[in-house]
Amino acid sequence: MKLVTYRGDSGPRAGVLDSGTSTVTDAGTALGEPAGVAVADLVARWDTVAATLAGGIRKAPGGVPLTDLTLLAPVPVPARNIMCVGKNYRDHSAEFARSGFDASGGPDGAPEIPSRPVIFTKSPGSVIGPGEPIDPHARLTSSLDYEAELAVIIGPGGRGIPAGRAWDHVWGYTIINDVTARDLQRDHKQWFLGKSLDTFCPMGPWAVTADEVNATSLDVTCHVNGELRQKASTRDLIFGIPELIETLSAGITLRPGDIIATGTPAGVGIGFTPPRFLTDGDVVTVEIEGLGTLTNPVRTTEGA
Fold first, then answer.
1. Which string of DSSP letters, residue by residue, matches 180-209?
2. What is the separation of C-alpha 263 from the centre of its chain, rounded to a whole number of angstroms?
3. Per-residue pLDDT tens digits for 244-287
4. pLDDT digits (tens, 9 = 90+) for 140-190
5. Alpha-carbon distance 266 to 236, whole Å?
């Protein structure tokens, strides 16, 4: 099942996308609940609402055409965190090392392939939806970069989840563009600031339940102005989804709606010589097999 969040008359609303007809049925209507139900709420009680939701959609009148709606990020306000993994593709780890950027702010002789997952977070306030502009923050950065990533959406929460049971805690997936100010990432020594400026987490276009895709083998691509920059498969992940969930949940309670961005493949702007960073007017398109296409322009926003 594919869930979307769209802009309704009274605020964000969750809907169910029918891929065959490209129409959306309001989730609250299908459940017989008040309008305004959120995707994160549905994820939290999925075991009790999934069958009712499917039945309600079958009985509901025709949905609204997708083209008539303004989509927002499918999980606009994650329950707790957007947790991310750095250098989780071998080729990207190598290009990152060559670029002179690392977790400590410069070349330090560290091995190109991490021995343990490199974890950081992005601010939930950085999330935007499909089609919304990425603010280049020209006053703060001159090295705006893109990172195409598969994002895991946690379903049943828990702490101390072993890798062997990790898939039981995956509700589904979406796409994230982990936009990064490379100079801030370098200068501030930790990655949070360079990854968390407003608009630096495009997400969408929808959330897809885990039963619809095989996350261990999905093609990931990124185009900038129509030019292919990144192309890989999730088969190339250094640390797979079960190991990431085990690592994160060892001492952190994961909650329904939490997001885990699994890392980006080679081909980011900083990996080129000279670097090919984003500029005002560029358009970034991330596509992941079975999850749709996330497109966002780079455009200075009001008040920047």
1. EEHHHHHHTSSSHHHH-STT-EEEEEEEEE
2. 10
3. 999 999 999 999 999 999 999 999 999 999 999 999 999 999 99
4. 999 999 999 999 999 999 999 999 999 999 999 999 999 999 999 888 888
5. 11
Q: Which residue has the tokens 């606009």?
A: 76
Q: Decide: 117 and 255 in contact? Cβ < 8 Å.
A: no
For the stretch 1-26, pLDDT in tens is: 999 999 988 889 999 999 889 999 99
Q: Which of the pair, 235 or 112, is modelled with greater confidence?
A: 235
Which parts of 71-218 are beta strand (E)? Answer: 71-72, 82-86, 118-122, 127-128, 144-145, 148-154, 170-177, 180-181, 201-209
Distance CA 253, CA 161 (A): 9
Structure tokens at 22: 């490209």
**Whole-number Å distance between alpha carbons of 209 and 104:** 37
The CA-CA-CA angle for residues 130, 225, 102, to 5°, reads 80
Using the structure block, give the residue that is written with the tokens 């209507």. Answer: 29
How far, in Å, CA of 13 to CA of 35, rounded?
7
The owner of tokens 């609402």 is: 49
Which H or E run includes 55? helix 46-59
Q: How many CB atoms lie within 10 A of CB 189?
A: 11
pLDDT 10s digits, 206-227: 999 999 999 999 999 999 999 9
Q: What is the DSSP letter of 48?
A: H
Amino acid occupying residue 152:
V
- The position carrying tokens 């002179």 is 100
Helix then strand count (H, E) for the chain reads 7, 18
Token pair belonging to 202: 């495009």
Q: Using the structure block, give the residue that is written with the tokens 């982990």.
A: 178
Q: Which tokens go with 149?
A: 């990533």
Q: If we measure between CA atoms, which residue out of 130, 8, 28 comes closest to residue 69?
A: 8
Q: Rounded to an integer, what distance in angstroms lies between the CA atom of residue 178 and that of residue 286?
A: 11
Here the tokens at position 207 are 């959330």
